[in-house]
Amino acid sequence: MKDSYEQRVQNQFGGFCTRVLKNEAARIHNEYARQRDREKSLGDLTTSELSLVATSDKYFEDEHVFEVLGKPVVVTGNLLAEAIARLPEDKRDVVLLSYFLGMSDQEISEHLNVVRQTISKRRAKTLKELREYLEKEGFEWPEI
Amino acid sequence: MARNMKALPLPVILAAMEGDGEALAAVLVHYKGYIRYLAMRPLKDEYGNEYLCVDEDMRLRLEAKLIHSIVTGFRILPA
């Protein structure tokens, strides 16, 4: 037979290629069917299912605004804000002005019309009170 | 696969087995029709009409699989 070797290889090659393509096509069809059966459109989810995969932003949730000398001051953290809210106004002003607005004792004393030493004494006392209150309430120091 | 198609010449087959780019391209051209036929999937448009359409993704996967198999899997059987 003429070119029998060539013909034999051609037949083998043709069969091989056809088989490979056919099998792969069946595999891909299976895959598509599987995906179709298991996949669910977002629109078809019930509310409770949706809430399992959903997430909501938490911005501003634990921010509290205090007012000092007519200026708003934002305090982040529920426990800290509560502790500050419990302070009497004169002590609260000192804490907010020095730690949240970054004023020096000299500046604070000028704004509040009291002697500078009063400010530093008041602040030291207030800090101690704050610390006691926070530790009693189970405040955890943030990791640095 | 159409029976009346002319088979690929032996040198092309041998070169394709070695991974020769031109030969593999020739093989792909040879099987283009069959691959398109296999990759045909019914597709619905927004009015609910069904069409037969070539799934490009599937077509490319079939081509890649064929090339891979020819280079790694095809061996000429002894007589």
Please provide a written account of the structure.
- The complex is a heterodimer of chains A (144) and B (79).
- Chain A contains 6 helices and 2 strands; from the N terminus they run H-H-E-E-H-H-H-H.
- Chain A has 144 residues and is mainly alpha-helical.
- Chain B has 79 residues and is α+β, with helices and mostly antiparallel strands.
- Chain B contains 4 helices and 2 strands, in the order H-H-H-E-E-H.
- In chain B, strands 1-2 form a two-stranded antiparallel sheet.
- Chain B is elongated.
- The chains are: A mainly alpha (144), B alpha+beta (79).
Which helices and strands occur, and which strands form pairs?
The complex is a heterodimer of chains A (144) and B (79).
Chain A: H1 4-38, H2 47-53, E1 63-68, E2 71-76, H3 78-86, H4 89-100, H5 105-112, H6 116-136
Antiparallel strand pairs in A: 1-2
Helix pairs in contact in A: 4-6, 5-6
Chain B: H1 10-17, H2 21-30, H3 32-38, E1 40-44, E2 50-54, H4 56-73
Antiparallel strand pairs in B: 1-2
Helix pairs in contact in B: 1-2
End-to-end separation of chain A in angstroms reads 86 Å
Number of helices of chain B: 4
Structural class of chain A: mainly alpha
**Radius of gyration of chain B from CA coordinates:** 16 Å
The oligomerization state is heterodimer
Q: What gap, in angstroms, lies between the N and C termini of chain B?
A: 25 Å
Which regions of chain B are unreliable across 5 or more consecutive residues at pLDDT < 50? none
User: In what range is the share of β-strand residues of chain B?
Assistant: 5-15%
Shape of chain A: rod-shaped
Mean pLDDT of chain B: 86
- CA-based shape of chain B: elongated
Residue share in helices of chain B?
40-55%
